[in-house]
Amino acid sequence: MRFLYYLSDGIIPFIFIIIVGYGLLNKINIFDVFIEGAVDGFKTVYKILPTLIGLMVMVGILRVSGCLDYLVAFMKPVSRITGFPSELLPLVVVKMFSSSAATSLLIDIYKQAGPDSYLGTLASVIMSCSETIFYTMSIYFVTAKVTKTRYTLIGALIAGAAGIAASMIIV
Amino acid sequence: MLNKIWGFLIVLGICVAALNGRIGNISTAVIDSSREAVSLCITMLGIMSLWTGLMNIAKKAGIIDFLTRAMMPVLKFLFPGVPEGHRANEYIASNMISNMLGLGWAATPAGLKAMKELKELNNQSSTASTDMCTFLIVNISSLQLIPVNIIAYRTQYGSVSPTEIIGMGLAATTVSTLAGVIFSVCARNFVKKKDER
Fold first, then answer.
1. What is the pTM of this model?
2. Band of the pLDDT at B88, cuts 50, 70, 90?
3. Suppose B33 and one of A37, A60, A137, B5 were both cysteines; which one would form an S-S bond, judging by CB atoms 3.0 to 4.6 Å apart?
């Protein structure tokens, strides 16, 4: 596992060197291009903000009311069988439908347990190895007007489960 | 759908809080959460803009085009139904590379175009082709190499080492993508055999 830590440390400087260096060699006005691209990131976050406010307020209410604790307690049997922490089960389920809602739950976990705790780390890894299954499927298939999706859902669920299992082993 | 769930959960939360005698905490929770969403986004603004800026250099310098071309042999294996040199290849590759580099907003338009081309190759059928299934399964299995947004959230909540999860995330996402690919190839062959019979 030590290798994974070296990789974590090295990958960002590596990407910087490659991209900036290659841009310099190609005689591109890298700083102008950088600024131009940064605007896109700015816009993306700007667009997410209202959604995130709405959903984080919702999670905030569910947290203080005790609803989230009930949900976690309710899911205890599942975690006893699978060994998967029940605190993270709502996150896994919600992540299939909405990425922003899952983000709000992830933030809640960071606040309750801390981002560097076992739960925080496991939640981070799970969030970085899964996609919103139902949301992605509906966007792509609805746009292409495809109604019979055959084995796509099963495949996506298997891939997701494999990712979660791997996260549990790694963390 | 989301409208109803959002409303229902808020009403439920407030009712349960009232029953638990915690109604007084709701106001603070609501105000704190909205403020937190904003400060989270401020942290994200920095990291996301840095990332998309860097990726724009990669695009202009031709690195992304290079990676897209490097994807082609892989596509041949994954999507046998797409002829060589077909436009669908380009869209699929650019969707995958954008996803790998964490540029979701750039990935979706290319992905939708890829779906349209795949549909044309499938005679406009309303049933998904095996290539479509593979494309979506691999897409959903998450290809992201660096989870930029997760790093931003971890930074915001005081992680000692926000980037520590990159390696673990990469290992986990490799496993999920491999599982998706293996399943897709098996399912594809299974379906093909069934059709031949």
1. 0.90
2. very high
3. A60
Amino acid identity of residue A10, one-letter, is: G
The DSSP H or E segment spanning A168 is: helix A152-170
For residue B126, give the nearest of A98, A120, A147 by CB distance: A147
Residue B122 belongs to some domain of the structure:
yes
Residue B93 in domain? yes
Counted domains in chain B: 1
CA nearest neighbour of B134 among B70, B88, B98, B171 = B88
Give the span between the Cα atoms of B150 and B160, in whole angstroms: 14
Is the residue at B57 inside a domain? yes
Paired residues of A62 in beta bridges: none
Rounded to whole angstroms, how far apart are CA atoms B79 and B93? 11
Give the N- to C-terminal CA distance of chain B in Å, as an integer.
42
In this predicted structure, what is the pLDDT of residue A10? 87
- Other beta carbons within 10 angstroms of residue B187's beta carbon come to 20
Half-sphere exposure of A62 (CA within 13 A, CB side): 24
Considering the domain boundaries, does residue B20 fall inside one?
no
Spatial CA neighbour of A147 closest among B37, B138, B128, B9? B128
Task: Quote the ipTM score.
Answer: 0.89
- Pull the structure tokens for residue B121: 């190759």
Hey, where are the domains in chain A?
30-170
Using CB atoms, pick whichever of A131, A156, A171 lies closest to residue B168. A171
Asked whether the beta carbons of A107 and B40 are under 8 A apart, the reply is: yes
Verify whether the Cβ–Cβ distance A162 to B179 is below 8 Å.
yes
Q: Does B43 contact A at CB distance below 8 Å?
A: no
pLDDT beyond 90 at A59: yes
- Report chain A residues whose CB lies below 8 A from the CB of B11: none
- Which residue range(s) make up the domain with B169? 26-196
Chain A residues with CB-CB distance to B159 below 8 A? 115-116, 120
Note the residue count of chain A: 171
CB atoms within 10 A of CB B87: 13
Query: Which residue of chain A comes nearest to B64, CA vs CA?
Result: A19
